Task: inverse folding
């Protein structure tokens, strides 16, 4: 199934982000002991555009996924990103013939 | 009792009731198993290569007096060699390629697959049922009664990985009563402040592996403020 990708580099200077991404169950489900690990800061945002939803991947400086969210529309996805990073981002399209959009986006970040 | 010293009866050689530890077959099989280490520490690949957890390392099978792993109420053993899985129509079944199925069918197949312990090739979309050996090993590990093989439910919560069944149970707790499915695999609490996500993309994620999300939503009802990613395990 075809899907398009767009990416943006994060230049946010926010010290404290209003959105946090963890690995592990929330404390409400672990008898209030917090067993989560905070995921690292994102340097690249990659949007995966499907016909009926959008996945937003946050990539660390080595390309690892450090958080992903699902949205019903591109509008919702952009709202989430603006809410999370507090600044408008410059979006670039990943070429449609690119075999690995994740690799492509992180290379652009590393070259920047 | 009629017969001879080697256990033969009327010219028919009988297998002795206890295993001789000097039997070439036994030693050979044990050596083969020892190359790999304990069964339950092996990877899926090694378990498949080894073929069966029922060999000499399982002391229960050394006793030829015992029947059905000494549990004749739960287990049957018509061949005398192994306890076959009961009620396992999904064992060794090739479900075909779900890559081109619609999202609803794909989602249902994937969830069903995780619960029954089958395998999904994320590159090709091909789904195959668990082997009888895998089902047997799960039963022997105490994870499930042999009569109910394929129905798993003892996730390792503290260790950070969950089975699908455990994840679904926690999702119900997370969402509370009155939750609704707002899209395929995305569930929202009645107050719109919590979300559980187990979409096809999450379950078939080739980069992060199969996972689910427990999320908190901002009071604006739109943005995620806390996103907890939890890996799924498919023992």
Result:
């Amino acid at each position: 199934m075809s899907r398009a990708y767009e990416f943006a580099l994060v230049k946010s200077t926010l010290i404290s982000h209003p959105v946090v991404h963890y690995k592990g169950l929330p404390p409400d489900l672990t008898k209030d002991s917090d067993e989560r690990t905070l995921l690292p800061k994102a340097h690249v945002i990659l949007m995966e555009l499907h016909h009926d939803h959008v996945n937003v991947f946050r990539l660390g400086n080595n390309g690892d996924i450090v958080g992903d969210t699902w949205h019903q529309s591109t509008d919702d996805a952009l709202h989430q990103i603006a809410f999370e990073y507090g600044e408008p981002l410059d979006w670039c399209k990943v070429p449609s013939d690119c075999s690995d959009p994740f690799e492509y986006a992180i290379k652009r970040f590393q070259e920047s | 009792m009629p017969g001879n010293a080697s256990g033969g009866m009327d010219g028919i050689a009988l297998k002795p009731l206890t295993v001789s530890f000097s039997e070439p077959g036994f030693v050979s099989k044990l050596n083969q198993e020892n190359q790999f280490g304990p069964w339950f520490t092996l990877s899926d690949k090694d378990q498949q290569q080894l073929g069966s957890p029922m060999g000499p390392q399982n002391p229960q099978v050394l006793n030829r007096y015992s029947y059905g792993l000494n549990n004749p109420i739960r287990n049957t053993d018509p061949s005398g060699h192994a306890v076959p899985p009961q009620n396992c129509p999904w064992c060794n079944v090739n479900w075909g390629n779900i890559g081109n199925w619609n999202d609803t069918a794909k989602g249902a197949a994937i969830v069903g697959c995780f619960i029954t312990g089958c395998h999904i090739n994320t590159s090709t979309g091909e789904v195959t049922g668990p082997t009888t050996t895998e089902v047997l090993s799960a039963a022997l590990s105490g994870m499930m009664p042999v009569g109910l093989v394929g129905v798993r439910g003892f996730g390792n919560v503290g260790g950070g990985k969950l089975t699908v069944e455990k994840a679904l149970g926690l999702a119900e707790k997370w969402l509370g009563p009155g939750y609704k499915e707002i899209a395929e695999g995305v569930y929202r609490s009645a107050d719109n402040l919590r979300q559980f996500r187990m979409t096809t993309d999450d379950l078939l994620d080739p980069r992060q592996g199969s996972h689910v999300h427990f999320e908190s939503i901002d009071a604006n009802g739109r943005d995620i403020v806390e996103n907890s990613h939890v890996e799924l395990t498919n023992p």
Summary: Residues 59 and 65 of chain A are 5 Å apart (CA to CA). Chain A touches chain B through 30 residues (CB under 8 Å). The beta strands of chain A are 4-9, 20-23, 37-38, 44-49, 54-59, 65-71, 92-93.
